[in-house]
């Protein structure tokens, strides 16, 4: 994460972060990592209550493990709610922030990365049993939100985008005056043009990417919701491009589609990776025809890496991408996506201009800013015994 500047001398205080998992490759897990590292850098004493915590050993925080299974969700979720609530009651210190509907305790900050009253249920596998389990899990998540959001009596509800904030206000009107947006942060040092060029070249060679061809990256799992089929169909119509996919899902299904469309070797798979910045580094553009997002961290990372972005105007993307200035707003129509890819293929200067503008836009959403805004919120809450009025942005 970037160094801190412009925050001013902090008034250190105790912060307790409650989450299922911290660290690893997931977007929410990485955000929590950056937040905790940043808070420690500002002098806060941080207590973490979670099932797993993958953070540097020398960070100087206090970690209390919640002994709960990670799966199956239908058992793991209610188990964590009960075990996590007992852990919070025992080990809470200072301002308490819970990540989503995961404990029954009264807390100070409710961090909402996903509003399950709205978010679609998209199984990552197509078997009937798996889809039934996902449907039941969706019902349980919505019930959990209703219960935990009510019992939390949170003094602040922090949403990761204006879109999520609007969803929370609509479905939980009793919380509306406590809702504030603090956008997720992007590590604009790690995700930047030219980072680790030797590693990027090695990745290009290992994937056997065409030396003179153009590469468009698609990053994420839950491929049905994120529109991988639309991306494949679009690239099939735009022969200048190879599609590079990072993430996990039913690869065989999409390989069959690519074969049916005659893409040949123009579909490459990277899988789930902790070095996703290298995927952006070997790409010439980024595409995400998603039907629903809450922030779309990968879009911000791609923009910070200097790539022209082609994405649907979902939450987060709407706040980043200005059509024709730093990317293109698209829908899930493969013909429209292909037409935009053709424009980018025909005009290297357009790719360069959009990429530079995307980088400039992403710089407004740095991890440093995200930490600073949380720090300021915690300081306000620490100085008030009751709910504070929050100006939404």
How many strands, which pairing sense, and closed or not: the largest β-sheet?
7 strands, parallel
Number of structurally distinct domains = 2
Outline type: globular
Strand content: 15-25%
What top-tier CATH class of the largest domain fits best?
Alpha Beta
Rg from alpha-carbon coordinates: 21 Å
List how many beta strands DSSP finds. Answer: 13
Q: What's the number of helices?
A: 14
Major beta sheet, strand line-up: 3-2-1-4-5-6-7
Relevant terms:
393 residues, alpha/beta, Rossmann fold, 2 domains, 7-stranded parallel β-sheet, 14 helices, 13 strands, 42% helix, globular
What this model shows, in words?
The chain has helices at residues 27-41, 73-91, 128-152, 162-171, 197-206, 223-226, 228-236, 251-260, 276-281, 297-304, 317-320, 334-346, 348-362, 367-382; strands at residues 14-22, 45-53, 62-65, 95-99, 109-112, 156-159, 179-181, 214-219, 241-246, 267-269, 285-288, 309-311, 327-329. It is an alpha/beta fold. The chain has 2 domains: 14-185 and 366-382, Glycogen Phosphorylase B (Rossmann fold, 3-Layer(aba) Sandwich), CATH 3.40.50; 197-364, Rossmann fold, CATH 3.40.50. Strands 3-2-1-4-5-6-7 form a 7-stranded parallel β-sheet, sandwiched between helices. The protein has a 6-stranded parallel β-sheet with strand order 10-9-8-11-12-13, sandwiched between helices. β1 (14-22), α1 and β2 form a beta-alpha-beta unit.
